[in-house]
Design brief:
four-stranded antiparallel β-sheet, five-stranded mixed β-sheet, 697 residues, alpha+beta, 8% strand
Length: 697
């Protein structure tokens, strides 16, 4: 006799339903004999770890009392491991293995009371690691993450625990028959009701609530329909108590309607469980699973039931159902979700070196049939594992790849934070290795994730040194210009702009240097780096002949502010003060420049300018000294000018012989310059007057 395909499919679904019912009363029975092959015990600070190695993945149940932990592995045999009965450490007082009811019982007495036990996955399904700690000890078992990854663990664990199945029903949405609505409502009201259902269909719960609350004063039949839809809308927003009230109002007005709307029954069952009545909620879901036998919706409903069990502490029942879905609904999205739940049990418990094995499980989920949400979650966890357990460079590459592929979405915020956190250890590795080229490339490749690096003291200076060491000043300008406009640049803005000015000057791009310096002074007028930039701008203004602006920029040199960084700034300041008629200020500024000038090419002009200001201040001896210093370091017409002025001042001071010597020296140089001509005329005039004076005597 040949079995009809539909009959065969229904038989398989009936088997699945039976497995669900068995899981609700006890964990599913293993289908073949297993064996506990060996055992390993290792004490650690705060906990004891017991590794149990099986021939096949174990089907187990874990329970504990205040002073004892018991692990039961079904359909398994084992040696008695008598030597472990005498084992002792600060927490464990022996391990006792026995065979009973076709399985293995492992009992571990715990010292001091307050036993805490958990199973930690290691990526190998045949290895069961049991961790024993005590509340009294006050030390919890910590995930085996790499040092410095604590912030990633905290943020990721919170998000992973918060992300659950969509609050939308696993069953298809069925709109209300428009013919029924037309009998109860006006045409405009029918359109409004159907618009509310459309909002439900596309997931706009808040908008749907606004629609269906408008039917609260309608006849009983309409209020009932609106009440059920309102319950769905509240459930979509996870407003479960309001959803429960709306569902119950609908049930009171139309008791039989829920039986005709499977998707509403599912949501009502889940709302019941979420608001405390898990017994009735689970019962309704089991009934619904039976009604959906032979349809593609049975496996997703089983996953929903498993989530309810897990949420209320029935972990073993939940795991049994997930395993059932994964095995019997293979190749479906529901199986992928079940496999995800099973893998998640090990996500924060795996031993550090075994994370690639768990990563492979998530990769298999990502590659298998499934919706975008499931694939996105799997890809996120593929990136998360090395971020917690793997080398920094590998972890950064994995997270950055995810960030580029999915810049928006439910995991994007945490991924961007992980991206920033993983840049720090990679930066430290490159800085320690003095890999300047690698550091520059790292920052250019991850420029939008540098917030935490920029917050670290010394980072931006180290990066700038790397740009300089690699001869990439032009690239530094472009990169720092980009960073300077980011809101997360923190307190680094002044350094970035100041460094861009220096690079632009070094590259000969005076226009860019000037515009960036002015931009700096506008944004950071009180920053100490501004003094240097004012000096640099004053030089440009002076060279353009804009002495008024030079004076304004260098005004800080009048007070007790920092001394000029460039000696020439005192020269520009003195010349600008002279232009403004401040002879005393100009003479002082020029004097300060002369003291600090060294071999500056401006020194001779500074002496000449100083002499001029002293003349204006009626200080002929001071002016004479300045001209004499200038005469020593000048030649040509400037030297002739100095000799002529020295002669004038000697004459003014009543020393005509000295004046004549100075003018004669100028005349001996020869040439047709104006200063030689003036010296010749002055010398002739002096001799005439001296001769006349002798004759008169």
């Amino acid at each position: 006799m040949t079995c009809h395909p539909r009959s065969h499919h229904r038989s398989l679904c009936t088997l699945l339903l039976l497995l669900v019912l068995l899981a609700l009363s006890a964990a599913a029975q293993a289908q073949q004999q297993n064996r506990l092959q060996r055992m390993k015990i290792a004490p650690h600070k705060g906990y004891t770890k017991i590794d149990l190695f099986f021939a096949a993945p174990p089907d187990y149940a874990l329970s504990s009392t205040r002073d004892r932990v018991r692990l039961v592995v079904r359909e398994t045999d084992a040696p008695l491991f008598r030597r472990f009965r005498s084992y002792s450490d600060p927490r464990v007082a022996g391990v006792f293995t026995s065979l009973r009811d076709g399985g293995v019982s492992v009992v571990i007495p715990v010292k001091g009371g307050g036993a805490v036990a958990q199973v930690v996955g290691g990526g190998d399904a045949t290895l069961l690691s049991l961790v024993i700690s005590t509340n009294k000890g006050g030390e919890a078992v910590q995930p085996d993450i790499l040092p410095g990854r604590e912030a990633i663990l905290s943020g990721a664990a919170e998000l992973v625990n918060a992300v659950g199945t969509s609050p939308r029903a696993a069953l298809p949405f069925v709109p209300t028959d428009p013919k029924l609505l037309k009998k109860l409502l006006t045409a405009d009201e029918v359109a409004l009701f159907l618009a509310g259902e459309e909002m439900l269909y596309v997931g706009k719960g808040a908008e749907a609530v606004q629609v269906f609350t408008q039917f609260g004063q309608k006849p009983q039949a309409v209020r009932a329909l609106a009440g059920f839809r309102l319950g769905e809308a509240y459930a979509l927003q996870e407003r479960n108590r309001e959803a429960l009230a709306a569902f119950r109002e609908g049930i009171a007005l139309a008791p039989g309607h829920l039986e005709q709307a499977p998707e509403m029954m599912q949501l009502y069952a889940e709302v019941l469980a979420k608001t405390g009545d898990q017994v009735q909620g689970k019962a309704l879901l089991v009934r619904l699973i039976g009604e959906q036998a032979g349809t593609p919706y049975m496996a997703p409903l089983m996953n929903r039931l498993a989530e309810i069990c897990e949420r209320h502490g029935d972990t073993e029942q939940a795991l049994a159902m997930y395993r059932t879905v994964a095995q019997h609904a293979e190749g479906t999205e529901a199986a992928g979700r079940a496999l995800m739940k099973l893998a998640d049990r090990e996500l924060f418990k795996i031993q550090r070196g075994r994370y690639p094995l768990l990563q492979q499980r998530y990769q298999a989920i990502y590659a298998a049939p499934g919706g975008q949400a499931l694939r996105d979650e799997a890809l996120f966890k593929i990136a998360l594992l090395p971020a917690l357990y793997g080398p920094a460079a590998e972890a950064l590459d994995s997270v950055a790849t995810y960030d580029r592929r999915y810049p928006r979405g439910i995991f994007s915020t945490i991924v961007k934070k992980m991206h920033q956190q993983l840049l720090l250890p990679v930066y430290h590795e490159l800085a320690q290795a003095k890999d300047d080229a690698g550091l520059v490339q790292l920052c250019q490749d991850h420029r939008d994730a540098l917030a935490l690096c920029l917050a670290e003291r010394g980072f931006i200076e180290r990066l700038s040194a790397a740009f300089e060491a690699t001869g990439k000043r032009a690239e530094e300008i472009r990169f720092f210009s980009y960073l300077a406009e980011r809101s997360w640049v923190g307190d680094n803005g002044p350094f970035l702009l100041a460094r861009m000015v220096e690079d632009a000057f070094a590259l000969g791009d005076v226009s860019l240097a000037e515009s960036t310096a002015r931009r700096f002074l506008t944004r950071f007028p009180n920053d100490a780096r501004g003094y240097r930039l004012r000096e640099q701008l004053a030089k440009l203004s002076f060279e353009r002949g804009d002495l008024d602006e030079a004076l304004s920029l260098l005004g800080f040199l009048k007070g007790k502010k920092p001394q000029p960084e460039f000696a020439e700034s005192s020269y520009y300041f003195g010349k600008a003060l002279a232009h403004a008629g401040d002879h005393k200020g100009a003479e002082g500024a020029l004097g300060r420049f002369i003291q600090a000038a060294g071999t500056s090419p401006l020194l001779s002009d500074a002496y000449l300018a100083q002499a001029t200001e002293r003349e204006a201040l009626k200080d002929p001896r001071g002016a004479l000294a300045a001209y004499q210093q200038a005469e020593k370091i000048t030649d040509g017409e400037l030297n002739q000018q100095c000799l002529y002025k020295i002669g004038e001042l000697y004459l003014l001071l009543g020393m005509p012989a000295r004046a004549a010597e100075s003018w004669e020296q100028a005349v001996r140089q020869g040439g047709s310059g104006s200063w030689v001509k003036l010296a010749t005329i002055s010398l002739q005039d002096l001799k005439w007057r001296l001769n006349l004076s002798k004759e008169l005597r």
